[in-house]
């Protein structure tokens, strides 16, 4: 079920909301959020629910074990076993075919070309996200950062919370623990207008900006072999803004939905295209993922505590793993490695880079980000190569001519690189009746475009 | 009292803003995606058809949403009026099933046939999709004589829309002077979008309501209880005339039987498509419609035999296979692929038999 669909906007959400606030106790609300989370998730494929339920039960049981075992090897088992199970499930569903294909390709280089079967594995949507949720929960329980919950439905509601279930943000249990604990006494009226405002802001970003760009970008990239240099740049700039408004729109909607149910979900984006360098970028882009990678991978690896070489290794390893987390394709590995390299280079050159004029840093780093998105968007390395060649070697060819595309491109460039983000505008939000007019305008426009039937799934669903 | 008035006024302004914003967005969205003017009231027939003497033909360079016509009003790439030396022109006559409604652009079966025949060096083939939505075999006769025949095709495939003979109170007519329907006034595009995106169950319920009302307006016996013999006869005569006209022009006619997603007799899973089609053909019950299709296809086979012209029995291959249809009669991408493959195979074999 997509947030930008009639079934969600006019059916699922109103029903879920009304029943939730009719229920009084925290326990009944946990149960309701769990049930609706599974309905939301099962709408794609009911079989996936079993997998999520299994993962939830394993992690919940491990949490109970950690609660009862203050120390010893049994406590370590409660950490290792559930994480291993989660990672095995993720590995099997997401990476098996990639692994087999890579073996085939690698042996092919030596003239062997081992025949490997391609398994018919359907990737359960959102598995990367809820696996992160369960793993961070177990690690935090083990570290003693949080006290494991003894309420199964509280934990199940956390894992299956439909607002952030399939495409993030990756919300750690500790970040919403307080709100979950007080769910029985949450104040509906306090968060309603703020929730609606966040949700509509995100809907606008997704439906009016990202999807408008997608129509042109998808068409252009489908014929990328024929694009001129200008056409390739226009398509990649379009994709750069499409990806941002798509994912940021989803995250803002998730935050809005959280507010509607009395749960404060943290920010996932902070105008990343205003970044002046790679470190700045990763503090602003997909904040929930980069902070998880930092806290659960980079720092445990040693972070920057053991000398320059180890720091470089840790940075590269973290970004490579972050890259492959996005998808089972070498393009994502390259994209992760590319950003790892940028972080390393910045580490070396920061004393010089930081003294360059602001405009140079902003523009220069933005171009580097766009180049990175080529690998992120390309379906294979060959496509990435062709696109980069078209971008950097003067080429004659085709390009979009529709003025609407360039109008949206310019507007989205201004908005993402110089304009305010949702948190700038709505953090201290207070409802005024005049806002109802803005809500009606945005909702009407979004509904009309959604009714056109061309809405696309969120880009991050594939991860 | 004043408070209540203020609230009512507020609600009205909010509702107005919602509607104006939705309508504007729908129009801007159409402009973005289809280059439709935000201020016009676009209509498929108006954008794609034009009256030319006694026929309606494709509007030169007509464009409506994903449909684009060439200089001569045919769906497909630009072409010369006369085929190049060494090229055999394959022309396809038909209605919306051939024109392509639901397929992805470039996946309608004439377009897929072009791709399949592209590998042939000698002779080279050029496929022309001369079909137009809503054209029945009777109007096709004049259309063929006055327009597509000028383009000197060597082969003419005819995919006759048999079901159209079950529509209307009168038999399909071929008017002496073709006229376009009057221009439509303001139509809300937002409302049109909303209507189209209603859930299937709701739409089927609405279909049944509309159908019941339509039937109630007419006397008993208006709904066909069996395939109407006069219409079947009219179809047979019209098709025979068309085939004769094509053959007389020197082109080689090839007939195709008409395929539907329903089996004969209809199964429960066929009802969704049959009920939807009945909105356009309110006089034909599902059973009559399927029976008529079968009988009309028998007539197609009989004409082919009688005139000694080739026939490709699409109905035998595709009938009852929902996976190839978007509705009762229109193909999806896969269905169009099957049809294109059958035609390509037939053409290759024919070339081998008569090089």
Number of extended strands of chain A = 0
CA(first)-CA(last) distance of chain A: 16 Å
Helix share, percent of chain A:
over 70%
Based on helices, strands and strand pairing, what is the structural class of chain B? alpha/beta
Mean pLDDT of chain B: 90
Low-pLDDT windows of residues of chain B: none
Q: In sequence order, what are the helices and strands of chain B, one letter per element?
A: HHEEEEEHHEHEHHHEHHEHH
End-to-end C-alpha gap of chain B = 90 Å
**What would you call the structural class of chain A?**
mainly alpha
Count of DSSP helices of chain B?
12
What is the topology, as strand order, of the major beta sheet of chain B? 6-5-7-8-9
In short:
The complex is a heterodimer of chains A (463) and B (355). Chain A is mainly α and 463 residues long. Chain A contains 18 helices and no strands.
Protein architecture, described:
The complex is a heterodimer of chains A (463) and B (355). With 463 residues, chain A is mostly helical. Helix content of chain A is 70%, strand content 0%. Chain A has 18 helices and no strands. In chain A, helix 2 packs parallel to helix 6 (152-160) and helix 9 (229-260) crosses helix 14. Chain B is α/β, with parallel strands linked by helices and 355 residues long. Chain B has twelve helices and nine strands. In chain B, 38% of the residues are buried. In chain B, the strands form three sheets. A five-stranded parallel β-sheet of chain B has the order 6-5-7-8-9. A two-stranded antiparallel ribbon of chain B has the order 1-2.
What brief labels describe this structure?
heterodimer; A: 463 residues; mainly alpha; 18 helices; 0% strand; B: 355 residues; alpha/beta; five-stranded parallel β-sheet; two-stranded antiparallel ribbon; 46% helix
Task: Reconstruct the topology from this structure.
The complex is a heterodimer of chains A (463) and B (355).
Chain A (H helix, E strand, L loop, with lengths): L5 H17 L3 H17 L4 H22 L4 H37 L17 H17 L8 H9 L12 H9 L6 H35 L6 H32 L17 H7 L2 H12 L9 H19 L3 H24 L4 H20 L3 H12 L10 H15 L4 H5 L8 H17 L12
Chain B lengths: L1 H33 L9 H5 E4 L2 E4 L4 E2 L2 E2 L18 E7 L2 H4 L9 H9 L6 E6 L7 H10 L8 E4 L30 H8 L3 H17 L12 H20 L3 E5 L14 H8 L7 H22 L3 E2 L1 H5 L14 H21 L2
Helix pairs in contact in B: 1-6, 4-12, 5-8, 7-9, 8-10
């Amino acid at each position: 079920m997509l947030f930008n669909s009639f079934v969600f906007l006019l059916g699922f959400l109103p029903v879920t909301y009304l029943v939730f606030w009719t229920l009084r106790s925290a326990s009944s609300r946990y149960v309701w959020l769990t049930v609706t989370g599974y309905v939301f998730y099962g709408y794609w494929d009911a079989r996936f629910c079993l997998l999520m339920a299994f993962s939830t039960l394993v992690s919940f049981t491990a949490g109970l074990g950690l609660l009862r075992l203050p120390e010893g090897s049994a406590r370590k088992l409660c950490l290792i076993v559930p994480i291993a199970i989660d990672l095995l499930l993720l590995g099997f569903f997401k990476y098996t075919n990639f692994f087999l294909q890579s073996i085939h390709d690698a042996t092919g280089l030596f003239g062997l070309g081992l025949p490997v079967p391609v398994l018919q594995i359907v990737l359960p949507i959102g598995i990367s996200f809820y696996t992160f949720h369960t793993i961070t929960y177990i690690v935090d329980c083990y570290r003693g950062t949080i006290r494991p919950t003894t309420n199964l439905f509280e934990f199940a509601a956390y894992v299956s919370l439909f607002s952030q279930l399939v495409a993030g943000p990756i919300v750690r249990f500790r970040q919403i623990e307080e709100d979950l604990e007080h769910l029985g006494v949450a104040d509906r009226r306090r968060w309603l207008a703020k929730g609606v405002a966040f949700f509509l802001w995100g809907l606008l970003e997704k439906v009016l900006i990202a999807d408008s760009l997608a129509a042109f970008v998808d068409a252009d990239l489908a014929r990328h072999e024929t694009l001129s240099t200008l056409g390739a740049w226009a398509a990649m700039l379009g994709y750069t803004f499409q990806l941002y408004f798509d994912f940021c729109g989803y995250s803002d909607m998730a935050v809005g939905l959280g507010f509607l149910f009395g749960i404060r979900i943290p920010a996932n984006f902070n105008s990343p295209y205003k970044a002046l360098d790679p470190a700045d970028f990763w503090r602003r882009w997909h904040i929930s993922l980069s902070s998880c990678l930092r806290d659960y991978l980079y720092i445990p690896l040693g972070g920057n505590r053991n000398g320059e070489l180890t720091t470089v290794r840790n940075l590269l390893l973290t970004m490579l793993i972050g890259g492959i987390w996005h998808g089972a394709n070498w393009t994502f590995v390259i994209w992760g490695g590319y950003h790892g390299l940028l972080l390393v280079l910045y580490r070396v050159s920061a004393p010089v880079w930081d003294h360059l004029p602001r405009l140079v840093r902003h523009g220069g780093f933005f171009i580097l980000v766009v180049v990175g998105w080529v690998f992120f968007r390309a379906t294979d390395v060959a496509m990435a190569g062709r696109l980069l060649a078209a971008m950097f070697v003067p080429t004659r060819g085709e390009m979009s001519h529709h003025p609407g595309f360039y109008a949206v491109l310019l507007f989205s460039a201004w908005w993402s690189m110089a304009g305010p983000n949702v948190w700038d505008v709505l953090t201290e939000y207070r409802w005024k009746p005049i806002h109802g007019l803005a809500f009606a305008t945005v909702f009407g426009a979004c509904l009309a475009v959604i009714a056109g039937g061309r809405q696309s799934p969120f880009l991050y669903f594939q991860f | 009292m004043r408070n209540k008035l203020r609230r009512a006024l507020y609600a009205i302004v909010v509702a107005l803003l919602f509607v104006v914003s939705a309508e504007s967005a729908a129009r801007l969205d159409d402009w973005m995606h289809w280059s439709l003017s935000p201020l016009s009231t676009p209509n498929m027939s108006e954008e794609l058809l034009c009256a030319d003497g006694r026929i309606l033909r494709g509007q030169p360079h007509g464009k409506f949403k994903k449909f684009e016509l060439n200089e001569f009003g045919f769906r497909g790439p630009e072409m010369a009026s006369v085929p190049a030396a060494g090229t055999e022109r394959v022309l396809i006559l038909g209605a919306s099933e051939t024109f392509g409604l639901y397929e992805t652009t470039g996946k309608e079966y004439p377009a897929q046939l072009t791709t399949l025949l592209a590998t042939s060096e000698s002779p080279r083939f050029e496929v022309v999709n001369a079909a137009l939505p809503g054209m029945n075999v009777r109007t096709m006769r004049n259309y063929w004589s006055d327009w597509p025949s000028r383009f000197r095709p060597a082969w003419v495939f005819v995919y006759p829309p048999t079901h159209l003979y079950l529509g209307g109170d009168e038999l399909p007519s071929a008017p002496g002077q073709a006229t376009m329907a009057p221009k439509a006034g303001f139509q809300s595009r937002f409302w049109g979008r909303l209507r189209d995106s209603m859930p299937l169950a709701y739409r089927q319920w609405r279909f049944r309501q509309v159908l019941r009302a339509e039937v109630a307006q007419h006397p008993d016996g208006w709904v066909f209880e069996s395939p109407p013999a006069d219409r079947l006869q009219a179809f047979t005569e019209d098709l025979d005339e068309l085939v004769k006209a094509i053959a007389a022009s020197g082109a080689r006619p090839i007939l195709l039987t008409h395929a539907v997603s329903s089996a004969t007799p209809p199964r429960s899973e066929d009802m969704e498509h049959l009920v939807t089609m009945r909105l356009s053909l309110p006089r034909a019950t599902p059973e009559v419609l399927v029976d008529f299709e079968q009988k009309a296809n028998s007539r197609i086979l009989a004409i082919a035999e009688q005139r000694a012209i080739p026939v490709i029995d699409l109905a035998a291959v595709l009938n009852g296979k929902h996976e190839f249809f978007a509705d009762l009669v229109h193909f999806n991408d896969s269905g169009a692929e099957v049809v294109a493959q059958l035609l390509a195979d037939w053409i290759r074999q024919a070339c081998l038999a008569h090089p």
